[in-house]
Amino acid sequence: MYFGLQERNVYPIDPEIYSNLYTYAHLIDISYCISEVHGIDPPFKCDLNCEKRFPNMTLVYQWYFPESVTGYIATTYDNIFNYNIAKPKKTIIISLRGTRSIFDTYADMKVDMIHYSNLGINLPSCGSGCKVHNGFYNYFATALNNINQYVVDEIDEDDYELIILGHSLGGSVALLLGLHYLDVGYDKMTLVTMGQPLTGNFDFVNWADKALGSHNGLKHDSFDRKFLRIIHKNDVITTIPRSRNPFIQYQQFKNQIYLNCSTSNARPQLSQVFDCVDGANQNCSYHIL
């Protein structure tokens, strides 16, 4: 057993990946500095030690929509994720915050689905059966329209990494953005969501897992597995939306980095963090349902 979890399909994670989880979390937390009256000050100053923790980070763009997803884009050449690289590479960060307003909460709780179709440029078609949460997709479309030109302008060299981060509702939007940019051809990408709700049906989730390499082993300094879905023990948000309608059924992703501690524990130990290969793993988030 691994500290209370059965060993089947449960694996410890690399210490470097564990360390990077805190960097991802900090970058997500910074998105909460943005509001109607406050924001991140250039080059990268905020109330969460932005400048001290990321001294060579440059703010590219930030936005606040009370009825949609809020976030920022920033870049750095610092090796903030401790990669084994000979020369600096450009890291482009998109960070999206989670539920804060009543508008977001209302969108979270709706269960209606909409047909999902991808561009089909570098990824195979998702197919006619793919469906996603209607509200999340609308937020994605708004965000993409708002930030796309900034992202395209920043990916101006071959040696880059695109980091897309999101918490709660922002996690579902980050997922859809990640799939879009992967389809466009930006394959040097890492997608990290924390407390992300369910986003689509079986066909969509199965397609997304394949596109993002969820079946691959989790390795530091690798793009083979592009998606890290971080889930806290007993976090009910990661199990909704739910519907009694048999034609509207949301599916768990196979990809889970499971924190075997409550959401009140902001600094879980390495021994409490696991890679749960299967989304239906009874040892991990599935038992919350």
From TrEMBL:
Swiss-Prot/TrEMBL GO biological process terms: lipid metabolic process
Gene Ontology MF annotations: triacylglycerol lipase activity
SUPFAM superfamilies according to UniProt: alpha/beta-Hydrolases
One Pfam family linked to the record: Lipase_3
Superkingdom of origin organism: Eukaryota
Signal peptide positions (record): none
Keyword terms, alphabetized: Hydrolase, Signal
Record flagged with keyword Repeat: no
Domain Fungal lipase-type intervals: 94-242
CDD domains, A to Z: Lipase_3
InterPro entries given in the database record: AB_hydrolase_fold (IPR029058), AB_hydrolase_lip/est (IPR051299), Fungal_lipase-type (IPR002921)
Annotated EC: 3.1.1.3
Protein name: triacylglycerol lipase
